[in-house]
Specification:
Layout lengths: L4 E5 L5 E6 L4 E5 L13 H5 L3 E6 L16 H14 L4 E6 L1 H12 L4 E7 L11 H16 L4 H12 L6 H12 L3 H13 L13 E6 L7 H10 L4 E5 L6 H4 L1 H13 L2
Parallel strand pairs: 3-4, 3-5, 5-6, 6-7, 7-8
Antiparallel strand pairs: 1-2, 2-4
Helix pairs in contact: 2-3, 4-7, 5-6
Length: about 270
């Protein structure tokens, strides 16, 4: 992201972001294992028409860690801090995976500050089948190797392979491994705990802003069936399923993704 302007949101914790272009703000929100580098293919394309901004969420990338436990709504509050810092009354939000849940959370907190939603390989929340016991088991499995002394870079290669399609290029896999290798271990564990224990499910029927839903056809974490259910629940939304893409469609199919996103944004 060195080719883009860098900025910081003051306060606690301090938030880092990159930006390029002018016009209506489009804010990119990365997933639980990512950082703002995940949007490196989108920033120039969107920045040619809009003010493109990609953040590092609290405890990620160049943003500060924090001592207190994480509440998942803290992420949405940070989006508000970023908008205030930019002097932007509202913005288009594009969220990948966890970033999509953050975008939905922010919409529920401040719907008048959201121009549109781009929900990428994401979901509205866990249903009742994911019981409290199952949630705790999931958390334990995810954090166990880290608590036993491994670093994010140690688990990155195996995790990355579960996120991509069968046709992912070595370059795309390497980008994911690099992304996960940059995780702040303690903050990453906090994110896993906070997101998995978060019981709120977004009320998609209340969304009245233009909404684009994109999912990879080989996404195993949030499969196309989940995306279709979201599209059915959001009036007037658009659903695009990208072929030969897994859970990170914007990384595996950047050119197609950029075209879909720009067509959507310019139609508003």
């Amino acid at each position: 992201m060195e080719q883009f302007l860098k900025g910081e949101v003051p306060g606690s914790p301090r938030l880092a972001y990159s930006e390029t272009g002018n016009g209506a703000p489009v804010i990119f929100l990365h997933g639980i294992g990512g950082n703002r580098r995940n949007w490196v293919e989108q920033m120039p394309a969107v920045g040619a028409h809009f003010h493109a901004i990609a953040w590092d969420a609290r405890g990620y990338g160049d943003s500060e860690d924090y001592a207190e436990p994480l509440r998942f709504p803290d992420f949405a509050a940070d989006v508000g801090r970023l908008l205030d810092h930019l002097g932007a009354p509202a913005a288009h939000l594009v969220g990948l995976s966890m970033g999509g849940r953050i975008a939905l959370d922010f919409f529920e907190q401040a719907p008048d500050r959201v121009l549109s939603l781009g929900l990428i390989d994401t979901f509205a929340g866990y249903d009742e089948s994911f019981t409290p016991a199952a949630r705790e088991k999931f958390i334990e499995l995810r954090r166990k190797p880290l608590l036993e002394g491994k670093e994010p870079r140690d688990i990155a290669p195996s995790v990355a392979k579960t996120l991509v399609s069968s046709r992912a290029s070595p370059a795309h896999i390497a980008a994911l491994v690099d992304s996960m290798g940059r995780l702040h271990k303690e903050s990453y564990i906090k994110s896993i705990e906070a997101m998995t224990r978060y019981e709120r499910v977004a009320d998609l029927s209340r969304i009245r802003v233009p909404t684009l839903i994109v999912v990879g056809d080989q996404d195993r974490l949030t499969p196309p069936s989940v995306a279709r259910d979201m599209a059915d629940a959001i009036a007037g939304s658009s659903l695009v399923i990208l072929r030969n893409a897994g859970h990170l469609a914007n990384i595996e199919q950047p050119e197609l993704f950029n075209q879909v996103l720009l067509d959507f944004l310019r139609s508003i």
